[in-house]
Write a structure and sequence with these properties.
This protein is α+β, with helices and mostly antiparallel strands and 259 residues long. The protein has 5 helices and 10 strands. The chain folds into 2 domains: 102 residues, 2-Layer Sandwich (Alpha-Beta Plaits), CATH 3.30.70; 133 residues, 2-Layer Sandwich (Alpha-Beta Plaits), CATH 3.30.70.
Length: 259
Amino acid sequence: MRIALGLEYDGADFCGWQSQSSGCGVQDALETAIASIAKHSVRVHAAGRTDAGVHALMQVVHFDTKSDRDEYAWVGGVNAFLPPSVRVVWSKRVTDEFHARFSAQLRHYEYILINASVSPAILATKAGWYHLPLSLVAMQKGASYLIGEHDFSAFRASECQAKTPIRTMHEARVRQAGGQFIFKFSANAFLQHQVRNMLGALIYVGNSKYPPELVKELLAQKDRTLSPPTFSPNGLYLTGVDYAEQWQLPSGAKNIGLI
């Protein structure tokens, strides 16, 4: 049988989602915990592979098992074997046609950025930080160029293994709350480091180094070497994954709740 799980995790304690030989990935911790309940080894597939330091408010995964367990076992039982920084929040049995990655229709990310002269202590691993003043209006205009179907090669990591750089951005929004900026991105899929690379460009726009049209020019040039540096992962959150109604899974983005 195939089981889908929704989970949240604090990425500061891990080297990213993907399994590593050292066992430092979120995937490693989850597979070990599930195996303790299933009584056999499992391979977990996720909707998205978050980078080291990136958090998730709602990651969706699936795995196949020969063990028949009730919903509580896949939630409370698995949680009993997980570190405190990872939690399963729901489980649902699905058919074999469901795939956490390939069945996903939208992914939602948010980034929390502290804009202050001194870096935050309490939110050191929960929010990004930039020391110079930033213009909300400039960043909003720059983000608007990201909406639609584009070749995002300018914001793609050199080691990205995606077959195509073409993605459709449904939402790219920036808002301000006091000394914090909140960036929200929703797309059918994301390239490796894409959100952090887009953040780097928007911050260059926000600090008046470049006009908002920089984003449009980078998209047209399709050259990562011409783009600003990749920004810190600390404030980045996978906030939700959307699926077709037929799967009857919780959809939509969750609120970060740090402000």
